[in-house]
Write a structure and sequence with these properties.
alpha/beta; Rossmann fold; TIM Barrel; 2 domains; six-stranded parallel beta sheet; four-stranded parallel beta sheet; about 35% helix; globular; disordered C terminus; binds cobalamin; binds iron/sulfur cluster
Length: about 475
Amino acid sequence: MILPALTEATSPYFRPIKYSLFPPLGLATLAGYLDDDDDVELQDEHVEPVALDDDPDLVVIQVYITSARRAYQIADHYRARGIFVALGGLHVTSCPDEAARHGDAIFMGPGEDTWPVFLRDFRAGRAKPTYTSTKRTLEHLPPVRRDLIRRSLYLVPNSIVVSRGCPHVCDFCYKEAFFEGGKGFYTQSVDAALAEIERLPGRHLYFLDDHLFGDRPFATGLFEGMRGMGRLWQAAGTVSSVLRPGLLEKAAACGLRSLFVGFETLNPDSLRAQGKHQNLRRDYGEAVRRLHDLGVMVNASFVFGMDEDDDSVFERTVSWAIEHGIETATFHILTPYPGTALFARMEASGRILHRNWDLYDTRHVVYRTKGMETEALETGYWRAYRDFYRWGSILRGASTKPRWAGKLRHFSYAAGWKKFEPLWDWIIRTRRTVRMLPFLEAILSGFGEHGSTPPREPRLHPVAVPIE
Ligand code: B12
Ligand code: SF4
């Protein structure tokens, strides 16, 4: 099972920490369906070179848009040697015809229903060329094969997903295309999610769910069940879920210490144009205040290049983020992913410039812009990162925090991600990544000020997993 990397992640010169954050959870999930006597290897090219000289019965490749070129190269390599190649993931689902030229079997949508069917077909020698997911459930999910993950190579080995998809529909999001033909949002049972958490060693967790707060009864049960587990955790949620009273307090009480929030834009016309109605008429400032008051740091996500943007958008957005004491920000250039409503709209009006998927990485402009020139958009995007992460900006942001511990936490977290990139590069190359986890935990806990509630006896019986 291979997760190919985009070129940047394997650079001989410089490796950003973001590619050594999370292990390949999707493939480890699929590996859970294999038989005990199947011999399986999980290779993540983001953290180590893949061995292409082996001779397996089956090669399984997960394809993201930015790694599609590399994925097809690896697929072609194995197929030329007569080895069966299965391709799945987001990009395969959006561009099945393209993927079918490189795979013996392709998979559309999530794999929990199609993958076990394929395995039976494959073993019987009658695998089909296409499998399309229609039945969406996370019931009776076998345990994720975390034993296949080399934990030491990741800063956040404990990534976890307890739901799939999202209840909202935004025009630029991968979600509608990926979940077409079935439910677009569903969760595990609370007990199964808690059991998965209990299986994870240490304190820190990172929920990769698109919207952990999306199903209120589920999230309530989860957060109540996590109380007293002594965890420190990070996740993603929407502005409206942050503003609604109740759930956020429960999340913070069981260890939520940083939340990725899709603010996207400060311009309501752009929100309307992208169908992001759940952000309309929401007080962004109040959302940030609520999070900070509960000791939760904010990773704010913004998108530049919507048709309503002009070149004042960069400074406006960055100033707003600094003034509101946002700890980290992720900026993106609007990217129309194939399969989305945005892509369809842009293609219909002849605005898609090319299909060089390598450049669909949210840092390049791949469509004809309206409110500003392409160059202004790309330079403005890089300037926004520089301006937000200047020492002066970090200090200004930190100074908005009322207490010294808060200022220090803000400063260490923001600087830690962006000001020590050569150090991260060295840590990755010397394979010490996981050793930095205690520092991340110390910062998240505000050096003790926001520590989690002490662990109590586990509610469910933990299942031992082999850990490196
Ligand atoms: C974690 C994450 C990352 C991590 C690590 C990814 C990793 N190790 O897998 C990091 C930080 C490195 C990252 C980076 C980027 N990411 Co990212 N990331 C995610 C995130 C939040 C979660 C992925 C995840 O683990 N999901 C949970 C697992 C269980 O699901 P899964 O991986 O999809 O696997 C399931 C199915 O896809 C399927 N499946 C997958 N492969 C196969 C193969 C077969 C044979 C079968 C049967 C089934 C199958 O079955 C699995 C079980 O259901 C997603 C959002 C999302 N919800 O998907 C964005 C997302 C995947 N990222 C995205 C993007 C754009 C990027 C970046 C380009 C962003 C940037 N500007 O830097 C980079 C580059 C990515 C790359 N390597 O090429 C987009 C991808 C769009 C696309 N069409 O491909 C997403 C969807 C975010 C978004 N909303 O736009 N990302
Ligand atoms: S709220 Fe986020 S995850 Fe949900 S559809 Fe919109 S962009 Fe996608």
